[in-house]
Design a protein that fits this description.
With 653 residues, this protein is of the alpha/beta class. α5 runs parallel beside α6 and α13 runs parallel beside α14. The protein starts with 20 loop residues before the first helix and ends in a 6-residue tail after the last strand. The N terminus is likely disordered.
Length: 653
């Protein structure tokens, strides 16, 4: 019997190098979603570092100047997100085009600036497998750039939000060149009218999603749109040129049987008569958005009778009548989502009837429905026991007792917004039975204390988001209970909870996944507590310490050292000086800071910080500093891609 041949390695060789590339790929696949673990793994030996470079398919650099090194290290990237890079010049796009000719499929330039049609032409011509391109907010692009995009003949998805200088001519080029498009978003492309949209609808016959929000279009292009055989999602939000008078019968001759989502929010000139015609040719619509539109009456509800597959109705901001809501309740459908946010006219009687008829509701939004009382809440709790999301901010006539019923009946809730309500500790105790809660907002709830939060901490272990804004009855004890029982917490807002001290921050520092922390106006918090957060919560992305007067430079130094993922910080009214602000320059991810009324900040120190923070995209400063900073400095920082916002706010003590 032959002896099995062993793998022999030199005495000082790395034993991990005997692992095959395929096996290391499998390990890296398992680490997807854990960036820190993947980074540690790749740095453990040269072999893993090399294989990880070949394995990576997605890149999200912070600055375009890193692209040459990244292109050399990661040769097989298919998705490139440049939205964090404030300045991306044509040279950078040409480099990307050369490096990833065969592999690149998706590029996101949605927050980048300074590139032109020449750079886009390099991408379009070289990267033949490019299928997704996001150019949102590229407000300087013109028709020549659109013509360059048209060379990307295999493009499937294209976003041009707020490309306001592109006209029908540019969109026409895209329509002719990119005939495989399945999604195109033209929101706020105010230079595009009926001609451009008509060309898109005629040439791009594979379209599934078409967003025409706030375009100056009329009924002239609608006939071509409704002839699209695969259209599923049509957004006409804010298209004020479409109204009852302009719509003619020939628009409605062609049925659009594939349409599943129709958004005509803000189209106040479309009445129930026109809506009835629209629904008659799109009977398969599942989601209908009518926000800020015509009043909800019996006639409008009757126009929905032909939508036998309707599952969601969004009526935010619409005036409603009781008869209209009752008519929606009588529709022969089973709604899964209903939004009545800021709808004037919602009453207990109408809402109770409606929810009693639609017991399969999963999402309900009754924000600012200020006339409803315990009667409505009882009907909701008893009828809609499968709710996963309930938003009822500022329903101020609802008594504390009503919230107990929500906890007793709605055990499947994952999202609950009770901001500015009369809920108390007994209500929180009952709601803690909703063990699936991931988001709980109880800001401006003046009746809750630590006693209620203790129950939430003990029972809602899946909580990721907690908003306690101005809930002044909360102290360190309640925060400690949340931190101990909710280890996956990602967002915490304790702004203006004036009893909070460093002890609360010591407790929150145990939440390693914390990404957003808002402690604005917590007067007792100091740099010691912030240092604890910095050292332990290394995923922190957003920090608001406005009016934390006891936080100074000694809190900034730990942030600069440990919080390398920090992108946004508000330092207004704190005790941070030039030294602290300048120390933040070592955070390569930092993109935005707000600095208003910092007494210890001198113009020279601010200038040094602006120069040192190379990745800034937005800076909010007091207007008085405008004349104290050199004009050449401001131009230099703007040329790197940063936008200054000058605020003329009076100092608030």
């Amino acid at each position: 019997m032959k002896k099995q041949k062993r793998l022999e390695t030199p005495q000082h060789a790395n034993p991990f190098e005997v692992l095959s590339e395929e096996l290391v790929f499998t390990i890296l696949d398992l680490l997807e979603g854990y960036p820190q673990a993947k980074k540690s793994f790749s740095l453990s030996c040269k072999w893993f570092h090399f294989v990880e470079g070949k394995h990576r398919r997605v890149l999200r650099p912070l600055r375009a100047e890193h692209l040459p090194a990244m292109a050399a290290r990661y040769p097989y990237v298919s998705e490139l997100d440049l939205s964090l890079c404030p300045r991306v010049a044509d040279g950078s796009l040409s480099l990307v085009a050369r490096a990833y000719q065969e592999t690149l499929q998706r590029v996101d330039l949605s927050r980048s600036r300074f590139f032109t049609g020449n750079g886009l032409l390099s991408l379009a011509v070289s990267c033949r497998n490019l299928v997704e391109l996001d150019l949102s907010n590229a407000t300087e692009l013109r028709d020549a750039a659109a013509a360059a995009v048209a060379r990307a003949v295999n493009l499937r998805k294209l976003w041009l939000n707020r490309c306001k200088l592109i006209t029908d001519m540019g969109i026409g080029c895209i329509a002719v060149g990119c005939r495989k498009l399945r999604l195109i978003c033209l929101k706020w492309c105010v230079g595009v009218g009926d001609l451009g949209v008509d060309l898109v609808a005629i040439k791009c016959k594979e379209l599934r999603t078409l967003d025409l929000s706030y375009l100056p279009i009329t009924e002239k292009c609608l006939s071509s749109i409704f002839k699209l055989q695969h259209l599923e999602d049509l957004v006409l939000e804010g298209c004020f040129g479409i109204d009852d008078d302009s719509l003619k019968n020939d628009v409605f001759k062609q049925e659009c049987k594939t349409l599943k989502k129709l958004d005509i929010s803000g189209c106040q000139n479309i009445s129930h008569t026109c809506l009835s015609k629209l629904t008659s040719i799109s009977g398969c619509v599942e989601r209908l958005i009518l926000a800020d539109g015509s009043p909800v009456t019996i006639s409008l509800a009757d126009s929905l009778n032909k939508l036998s597959m309707l599952q969601a109705i969004i009526l935010d901001g619409c005036p409603v009548t009781s008869d209209g809501l009752r008519a929606i309740g009588n529709l022969c459908i089973s709604l899964r989502e209903l939004s009545l946010s800021k709808c004037l006219g919602v009453t207990d009687e109408a809402l109770s009837f409606l929810v009693s008829k639609h017991k399969d509701l999963r999402k309900l939004d009754i924000t600012c429905c200020r006339k409803i009382t315990d009667v409505s809440i009882a009907s909701i709790a008893n009828s809609c026991i499968s709710l996963t999301s309930l938003k009822m901010e500022s329903c101020t006539l609802v008594s504390p007792e009503a919230f107990i019923l929500i906890g007793q009946k709605c055990h499947y809730l994952e999202e609950l917004d009770l901001t500015d309500n009369e809920i108390d500790d007994e209500g929180l105790k009952s709601i803690s039975r909703c063990s699936r809660l991931s988001s709980l907002k109880v800001g401006i709830c003046l009746n809750i204390t630590d006693r209620g939060l203790v129950h939430v901490g003990m029972c809602c272990s899946k909580l990721k988001e907690l908003d306690l804004y101005r809930s002044t009855g909360v102290t360190d004890l309640g925060i400690s209970a949340i931190a101990s029982g909710c280890p996956d917490l990602e967002m915490m807002n304790t702004s203006y909870c004036t009893s909070i001290t460093d002890r609360a921050l010591f407790s929150l520092s145990k939440c390693a996944n914390l990404k957003t922390l808002e402690i604005r106006g917590c007067l007792l918090v100091t740099s010691i507590g912030l240092a604890s957060i910095a050292m332990n919560c290394k995923q922190l992305v957003r920090l608001d310490i406005k009016k934390c007067y006891n936080i100074d430079d000694t809190g900034m130094i730990p942030l600069a050292h440990f919080s390398q993922n920090l992108r946004q910080i508000n330092l207004s009214y704190s005790s941070v000086t030039d030294v602290g602000l300048l120390s933040l320059a070592s955070i390569s991810c930092l993109q935005s800071f707000t600095v208003l009324h910092l007494q210890g900040l001198a113009p020279g120190g601010l200038a040094a910080a602006l120069l040192a923070c190379g990745g800034l995209t937005k800076v909010k400063l007091h207007l008085s500093l405008r004349s104290l900073l050199p004009e050449l400095l401001i131009r230099h920082v703007e040329a790197r891609g940063c936008v200054f916002e000058w605020r003329d706010k009076v100092c608030q003590v």
